[in-house]
Design goal:
473 residues; mainly alpha; three-stranded parallel beta sheet; three-stranded antiparallel beta sheet; RNA-binding
RNA sequence: GACCCCAUCGUCUAGAGGCUAGGACACCACCCUUUCAAGGUGGUAACACGGGUUCGAAUCCCGUUGGGGUCGCCA
C-alpha cells in the first residue's frame, strides 16, 4: 500500500518478458514502471528474456520485444540475460535443495495428477498436489518413471507478501502445494528460474503484473528454503480493453509496433501508459524527467484500468505539436511516398517544413498528419475530391478572376496575397467563402486545408498558379 | 467452484473523517473563423448497494452485488 522509506540498497529492477509473442501494451507498461522506479532511485533496470519454453520461444519475438523497448526508450541498462542459458545453474540449485532434504523426487504420473485435479474439482476446491511422494522412501521409486523434483513446502502457517502496491496479502500454506522445481526431463520450471535469476541478478524490486501475485507465495517459499533474502514485490493491476474485459490477443491487445504503425509517437504512449494507474495530482502532460522525479509505487492504483485509444490520440496530438519538424517529416516520408508514388524530394520537403506548423494542429496521428500534408507534395494535376470538384465547377468565374489578380501580386507572401484576394472580394461583391473555397479546391484538391493564404505562400507562385490553371482547364 | 484482489463522472483519475466531490479525455452549446482544425468560454456527467462506527463518512469496519487474477512437469 505504501512505500514507507526509500530503499536502502541500490535499486535493481528488471523486466522479464517471455518471447512467445509480440510485446503487448501491458508489457510495455510493466517495463515502464520498472524503468521509472530504477531511474527514480538512481538504480539499475535490467532485462531478462524468459525463453525457457523452448517450443514457444522464437527469435522473432525476441526481436519484436527488443525493438519495441528500444522504440519506447526502455532498453535495459545492460545486455539482456537469457534465462535458458542459465539452466545449469537452476538445476544446481534444485539439486542443492534435494541434498538438504528441502526438496524431493516425485514420481506421480500425469495420469495421477489429472485424477487429483478431477477430485479437487468435484470437491469444489483448487487443484493441489497431495504430496504423496513427500515423505516416501525413495527406495519405493517405480522403475521407468522419470521423476520431477518438488519443493518440500511448509504445510502449516501462512505465507505473507508485503506488496508495495497491493499491501499485505496473505494465504494459508495449506492452500499451496509442493511446486515442481525440475521437470521430469530435468529442465527447470519458471518458478525456480525466476527466483534464482532474480537473486543472482541482485534484483531488489520485482514489479510485475497482477497475474503473478499468487505465484509470489510460492516464490517466497522458495526464497525461504534457499535462505535467500527475497526482493520487494509490487504487483500492478492489468490493463483491460475498452469494454472492461481483459486485454487479450483477440481483444484489442496489440504489439507496441502496432501503435507505432498507427502513427503514435513513443512519448505519447509513454505519457499515456504512465497515467494509466498512476497519477501525480492533476498533472496530465508529464515529461520523462518529471516522470522520473515524481514516480513512486505508492501512487500506483490497485484497480485495473481500461485502455482508451481516444485519450492516447489526444495525448499524441499534443506531442505531435511539440515534436521537431524534421523528425516528423522523416516519420511521414514512407506514408507520403505511398500516397504520391514517389520518394519525397527536396522541394517537397521544403514545402512540408514551411507548412508543417499549420498542419500539426489538424492531426492526431502521424498517419493523419501525412494524409493532410499530402497535397503539398502531390504531383500535378491534382485529382479533386467530389466535393472539391463541385466547388470548382460552381466557382470557375471567381477562380479565373482571382487567378489574374494573384498573378500580379508582387510579393508572394501570405499577407499580401490575402489583401489581394480580399480586394477582389470587395469589388466583386462576393462573399469571401465564394472565392476562397474554389481557390482552396484548386490548390489542395480538397475542401479542408490549413489557412488558404498560408497554403498559397507555401506552395509558391509558380505551383499555385499552375494548380489554378489545372483546375480551370 | 476454491483462494486472492479490486470498486469516484462514459474513460483515466484527484480525494488519505468535515470539499458546492477537483482535473483530463470524450460529449454538448456558444465565441473566434475563408474550410477543417486549433484556441477561448460555459455546460451535462460519478462516490455500486445495504448495514454499521462517528457529532460527521467517497474516505474506517462488515456484508451484498459486480469485475478481475490464479488454480500446469506455460511463462
Amino acid at each position: 500500500m505504501s512505500e514507507p522509506t526509500a530503499p536502502t540498497d541500490k535499486v535493481v529492477t528488471r523486466f522479464a518478458p517471455s518471447p512467445t509473442g509480440f510485446l503487448h501494451i501491458g508489457g510495455v507498461r510493466t517495463a515502464l514502471f520498472n524503468w521509472l522506479f530504477a531511474r527514480h532511485f538512481g538504480g539499475t533496470y535490467l532485462l531478462r528474456i524468459e525463453d525457457t519454453d523452448r517450443a514457444r520461444s522464437t527469435q522473432e519475438a525476441i526481436d519484436a520485444i527488443l525493438d519495441g523497448l528500444a522504440w519506447m526508450g526502455l532498453s535495459g541498462d545492460e545486455a539482456p540475460v537469457f534465462q535458458f542459458a542459465r539452466a545449469a545453474r537452476h538445476v544446481k540449485v534444485a539439486q542443492g535443495l534435494l541434498e538438504q532434504g528441502k526438496a524431493y523426487y516425485c514420481y506421480a504420473t500425469p495420469e495421477e495428477l489429472a485424477e487429483m485435479r478431477e477430485v479437487a474439482k468435484a470437491e469444489g476446491r483448487s487443484m493441489r498436489y497431495d504430496g504423496r511422494w513427500r515423505d516416501r522412501d525413495p527406495a519405493e521409486a517405480p522403475h521407468g518413471i522419470p521423476p520431477v523434483i518438488r519443493l518440500k513446502a511448509p504445510q502449516d502457517g501462512e505465507t505473507v507478501v508485503q506488496d508495495l502496491i497491493q499491501g499485505e496479502v496473505r494465504v494459508v500454506n495449506a492452500q499451496l502445494d509442493d511446486m515442481v522445481l525440475l521437470r521430469s526431463d530435468g529442465t527447470p520450471t519458471y518458478m525456480l528460474s525466476v527466483v534464482v535469476d532474480d537473486h543472482d541478478m541482485g534484483v531488489t524490486h520485482v514489479i510485475r503484473g497482477d497475474d503473478h501475485l499468487t505465484n509470489t507465495f510460492r516464490q517466497l517459499q522458495l526464497y525461504d528454503a534457499l535462505e535467500w533474502r527475497a526482493p520487494q514485490f509490487a504487483h500492478m493491476s492489468l490493463i483491460h480493453g475498452a469494454d472492461g474485459a481483459k486485454l487479450s490477443k483477440r481483444h484489442g491487445a496489440l504489439g507496441v509496433e502496432a501503435y507505432r504503425d498507427m502513427g503514435f509517437l513513443p512519448e505519447a504512449v509513454f505519457n499515456y501508459l504512465l497515467r494509466l494507474g498512476w497519477s501525480h495530482g492533476d498533472d496530465e502532460i508529464i515529461s520523462r524527467d518529471d516522470a522520473i522525479k515524481w514516480f513512486g509505487l505508492d501512487a500506483v492504483g490497485k484497480a485495473a484500468a481500461r485502455f482508451d485509444l481516444t485519450k492516447l490520440s489526444s495525448l499524441n496530438a499534443h506531442y505531435l505539436r511539440l515534436a521537431d519538424d524534421a523528425r516528423l517529416i522523416d516519420l511521414m516520408a514512407p506514408r507520403l511516398t505511398e500516397i504520391t508514388g514517389a520518394p519525397l524530394d527536396d522541394a517537397g520537403r521544403a514545402r512540408l517544413e514551411k507548412g508543417l506548423a499549420g498542419l500539426k494542429t489538424r492531426a492526431q496521428t502521424l498517419i493523419e498528419l501525412a494524409d493532410k500534408a499530402a497535397f503539398y507534395v502531390r504531383p500535378r494535376p491534382l485529382v479533386p475530391t467530389d466535393k472539391a470538384a463541385r466547388l470548382l465547377a460552381g466557382g470557375a468565374d471567381h477562380l479565373r478572376a482571382v487567378a489574374g489578380i494573384l498573378a500580379d501580386v508582387a510579393e508572394w507572401q501570405a499577407e499580401a496575397l490575402e489583401s489581394a484576394v480580399r480586394g477582389y472580394v470587395e469589388v466583386s461583391g462576393a462573399k469571401l467563402g465564394e472565392v476562397a473555397q474554389p481557390l482552396r479546391a484548386a490548390l489542395t484538391g480538397s475542401t479542408e486545408s490549413p489557412g488558404l493564404f498560408e497554403v498559397l505562400e507555401v506552395l509558391g507562385r509558380d505551383e499555385s498558379l499552375a494548380r489554378i490553371g489545372d483546375a480551370l482547364t
